[in-house]
Every structure is written in structure tokens, then in C-alpha cells.
Amino acid sequence: SFSDGVPSESLEAAKNASNTEKLTDQVMQNPQVLAALQERLDSVSHTPSSYIETLPKAVKRRINALKQLQVKCAHIEAKFYEEVHDLERKYAALYQPLFDKRREFITGDVEPTDAESEWHSENEEEDKLAGDVKDKVVIAEKEAAAAEEPNPKGIPEFWFTIFRNVDMLSELVQEYDEPILKHLQDIKVKFSEPGQPMSFVLEFHFEPNDYFSNSVLTKTYKMKSEPDKADPFSFEGPEIVDCDGCAIDWKKGKNVTVKTIKKKQKHKGRGTVRTITKQVPSDSFFNFFSPLKASGDGESLDEDSEFTLASDFEIGHFFRERIVPRAVLYFTGEAIEDDDNFEEGEEGEEEELEGDEEGEDEDDADVNPKKEPSQPSECKQQEPVLMTRGPHSSCPKSPGFGATCPWRACGFRSA
């Protein structure tokens, strides 16, 4: 229809335009909206990419040349990490005799000498003073009691205790896994041979047991130390890209990675009911040896699978860098206490910041006499924390998955 020769659509459009203009005027008169818009414009105008776009073509050309140099640097860095891997292999051979002796002491195959067993504790002086004032009769009684103490072979449940102490590992262990892990005698790390693709193998050595016939269970972690062709600037060192487990030869009825369930089925025609049994997967630490495979055909994994794979890589790296080299400290809990002290240091810094805020409140109290003055807070200063070879992305000091170890020579970045 038409009104005075003007189409109704045109009248409606003019009306909408007028309403929009009024709404815009109202919004622009709001100082909070204007401030937000200005902040947004400022952030956009000051981004590095927007700055680069304003540069002359001749300057952009030189920047591209710098990127070419950066790619060459990444390839040199990759070679550096390959040599670091060779160095790790060299020193692993030097560590191994000590680790072999550690296994002999744990299993009880060899008894340490008095010299090997000597250890000076921090409380040694206090213990000596306390011993000087003890009654000779009490000492004799204690010596008699010590003579009657049991003397088990080696160090019972050494590795199982480590699993129980470390949260990352204890979360994987089910109650029915525990009797099996008590048969674990040693964990070793083996590095790939020269000229072979970069990798490392975790070997879990078990004594003969009633659960499986394997004496060694293995987990191989494959690594890559080369810049990605599509994104060379993302290279930060070797990364774990995939892992392979091994087949466990379970004895009959002892496989803890599956459970048997019974299910009733009703026949559609006759109406009869039958009971069937089938096996379904069960949570177990020993699923560690049947890992999820990284997608190698270009297809991306779903979010849950990516998280599972990243967790697997983290645990493998944790065994390699922390558990195996420092096993006795995780058995006694000293390594775990070190991690806790680091976390307390972070909390101490936070408390110190809160103290500064309280100081501001005191200044406010001088201005406003009605306000109660804040009580002086206690000193929250913490002892300095010495950090060695860390933090890694797998340890409690980690900033999270996907983080790079600041100690670059460790050559690890989670995928």
C-alpha cells in the first residue's frame, strides 16, 4: 500500500532509522559505555599485529628476513637437544651401577656395609645429648628390645610405598592393584640408541607372582626434536608425541584391567530369560601399559582423549625425571615435602601482598577516625626456596599441562 505516494516499506525504514539514531544518542551519552568503547579502541590500536600493518613495505621485507633467520635458529636448537639426549644417554650409563646396587639393597640380595649404611641426620647432635642423660638401665632395655625386632629381607614394599606417597600415582592405583605392586622390584629408564629416533623406555621389573607371567612390563615414549613445518616458531625443545605399551600375560582369572558382569536377556518371541556374562574394562594402574594412541593420520582427538594422552605423557616424564633418579626421597617423603615447601612459599608471597593491602587500610584509618585501626600483622617472610632442574610440567610446581620445563636442558615439553 502507499501513503501520499510513499511506499509503506520506506516509511517503516525511516521510522526504524529514527529509533536507532535516538538509541545511539542515549548510549553515547552514557560515560561508562564511552569509557568501555575507548578502552576497546585503545587495545585494538596498540596490538603488535596492527602496528606491523602500519609499517612500510621495505620494513616488512626486513622483518620477513628476520623470520627466516629465526627458523634457522630453531633447527640449530633442535640439533642442540639431540646432543643433550646423547649426553643423557652417556650419564645414564654412569648412574646405572648405582641404581643396580640400589635394587640389590631393596630386594635384600646384598646387605649394605656399615660404611654404606652410615648417614648423619640433622638431629644427630640432639640425639647424642639425649642419649648422654639416659639411664643405663633404659638403654639396656632398648638394646634388648632391638635385638628382638624382626629383620625382614631388604626394604619391603619399597616401590609400592612410593606409589602410595605420590598423589599423581596413587590416583591411578585401585585396591586390587596393590597386591600386584607389592611385587614390583625395580623401575629403570632406557634411552634410545645413537642413530635411532629419540625415545625412552620405562621398565617395570616384577618378581614372580600369581598375577602375570611377565618379569618386565615396558612403556615406550616416542619423542620428536624438530620444528613443525607449519608452525616452526612454536618449537621449544623435544616433545613426547606418542607412546606404546606391552601385552601383559595375565594368569587365569587374575586380569584386574577387566571385570566380569552378568546381564539378563529376554527372548523377543518365546519370552524366556537367560543370563549372560561378559567382560568390560575396569579402572586399574595396569591400563598404563595399554595407552591411547596419538592420532597419526592428521585427525584430531576429542578433548577427553587429548587430556588422557597429555596425562599419560606427564606421568611418563615424571617417572623418568623424578621418581627413578630420586626414588629413596619419594619413599621417605622428603621429595614430597620439598614440593610442599615450594607451594608454601607461593602462599607466603600471597600473604605478604595481603599485608600490603592491610597497610592501605591503616592509611584510611588515619583519614577516617571512626574506622578501627588494623592490628599489625605478623611477619610472613618465608625461607628462600632453592629450585633445581625444575619445575617440570609434571611435578606439583608445574604451571599446568602443556608447560615447558624452564630448565631447558631437560629437553621436555608435553605435547
TrEMBL record:
Its main location: nucleus. The keyword Nucleus applies. This is Nucleosome assembly protein 1 like 4. Belongs to the nucleosome assembly protein (NAP) family. One of its GO terms (cellular component) is nucleus. The keyword Nucleotidyltransferase does not apply. Keywords: Nucleus.
